[in-house]
Amino acid sequence: MTEILPSQSSSLDDWLCYLESIHPANIEMGLERVARVANQVDLLNSPSKIILIAGTNGKGTTARCLESLLLAQGFSVGTYASPHLIRYNERVRINGQELDDQFHVDAFDMLEKGRGDTSLTYFEYGTLGALAIFKRHAVDYVLLEVGLGGRYDATNIVTPHACVITTIDLDHKEYLGDTRELVGYDKAGIFRNNTPAVVGDLNIPHTVTDYGNEINADMVLSGRDFTFAEDADGFNWQYQGNNWRFAKPAIPCQNAATALTLLSKLALLPREQQVRECLANLTVEGRFQQLSDTPRVFTDVAHNPESARYLARKLSVYKDQGFKIHALVAMLADKDKVAAMSAVVDVVDEWSLASLDCFRGDTVENLAKALAETPSTAPSTHYPNVEAALDKIVQTVDANTLVIVFGSFITVAAAINYFKK
């Protein structure tokens, strides 16, 4: 750990090590501390219009879609996402581009000098650092991904121009609760009075709409106000006077429809042909991303039941084409491993299980116990880490097998780094 206080001339790595060392908790819910620092350094007085994006899954792909559609119209856009896959710089983009280390160093140095004796977590530092960078660039729109839940997440200190909830499912149950109603209520905490709030979930818990009605949020709800219908080739989207059809993008159609609805609600919807071009060119690293042709290897950040169900649907297309599916899984200890693996059991022909040697990483032994609780009858092999598993897999799988590496952002990062080397 870095014990010496970094400076404006220190490296970004030194700053990140320092930020990891100065707060005893990785997660500390609540807005009072982070809001106090934000006010002390004048981060909440910004000309940018901020769009808050919450959801169990789909935040990153929805933000990427909004970013592309806004940029196509000539707006400047700042985007904040977490976690990152390979490098911290992925978390903050200006007009779709990562920034040099010095922008982050400058922001952290300003926060360290301005926070006084108020402690901040690593995520809170990152959130305030992003807001500082966006204010420095005076972007037209800020797309701010909520880290955990909504109501007490550090991002919720801002006054949003609009809000989005992508999907609602069970994850982080120790913080958000063990029912969709409790999770939904927490995510609805980003809503504001008379502020557009688009909800893309297909089965919206009543707690979301109850809270939205209570505070008079301007809700636009999937299934009630807008619809999308997906088939093998694409999807139809309907909202107000729009009834458009698009080819299937690289992101979930549900998230694309949610993004289109928000922009339409804000009178920011591009021309239909612009939308078509943006959707056709969308790519998001780590979301069913192909890493290798021979052997055929894909990776996906699916790490909870909902995202694993979506992954299963993607894999079933290849299964129907005659491919065998070999799943390499490594997960964090606090995830619902049984539910996540159960969601893909029907399409998996062989398992490789690996340990994750990182903070909160789980062991291969615990993964094996979780797999034993699923309906799977497919054989499994155990490895000490993702790299060792890939060393064996790439030498043994045949051309009729698709390998899918999933389970966490850290798993995906390991797979991406493996093939880059």
TrEMBL record:
Entry protein name: Dihydrofolate synthase/folylpolyglutamate synthase
Annotated ranges, domain Mur ligase C-terminal: 286-409
Function per UniProt: Functions in two distinct reactions of the de novo folate biosynthetic pathway. Catalyzes the addition of a glutamate residue to dihydropteroate (7,8-dihydropteroate or H2Pte) to form dihydrofolate (7,8-dihydrofolate monoglutamate or H2Pte-Glu). Also catalyzes successive additions of L-glutamate to tetrahydrofolate or 10-formyltetrahydrofolate or 5,10-methylenetetrahydrofolate, leading to folylpolyglutamate derivatives.
Domain of life assignment: Bacteria
Pfam family, one: Mur_ligase_M
Listed EC numbers: 6.3.2.12, 6.3.2.17
Catalytic activity, as annotated: (6S)-5,6,7,8-tetrahydrofolyl-(gamma-L-Glu)(n) + L-glutamate + ATP = (6S)-5,6,7,8-tetrahydrofolyl-(gamma-L-Glu)(n+1) + ADP + phosphate + H(+); 10-formyltetrahydrofolyl-(gamma-L-Glu)(n) + L-glutamate + ATP = 10-formyltetrahydrofolyl-(gamma-L-Glu)(n+1) + ADP + phosphate + H(+); 7,8-dihydropteroate + L-glutamate + ATP = 7,8-dihydrofolate + ADP + phosphate + H(+); (6R)-5,10-methylenetetrahydrofolyl-(gamma-L-Glu)(n) + L-glutamate + ATP = (6R)-5,10-methylenetetrahydrofolyl-(gamma-L-Glu)(n+1) + ADP + phosphate + H(+)
Domain Mur ligase central residues, every copy: 53-196
Family: Belongs to the folylpolyglutamate synthase family.
Listed transmembrane segments: 401-419
InterPro entries given in the database record: Folylpolyglutamate_synth, Folylpolyglutamate_synth_CS, Mur-like_cat_sf, Mur_ligase_C, Mur_ligase_C_dom_sf, Mur_ligase_cen
Alphabetical UniProt keywords: ATP-binding, Folate biosynthesis, Ligase, Magnesium, Membrane, Metal-binding, Nucleotide-binding, Transmembrane, Transmembrane helix
Pathway: Cofactor biosynthesis; tetrahydrofolate biosynthesis; 7,8-dihydrofolate from 2-amino-4-hydroxy-6-hydroxymethyl-7,8-dihydropteridine diphosphate and 4-aminobenzoate: step 2/2; Cofactor biosynthesis; tetrahydrofolylpolyglutamate biosynthesis
Stored NCBIfam families: folC, PRK10846.1
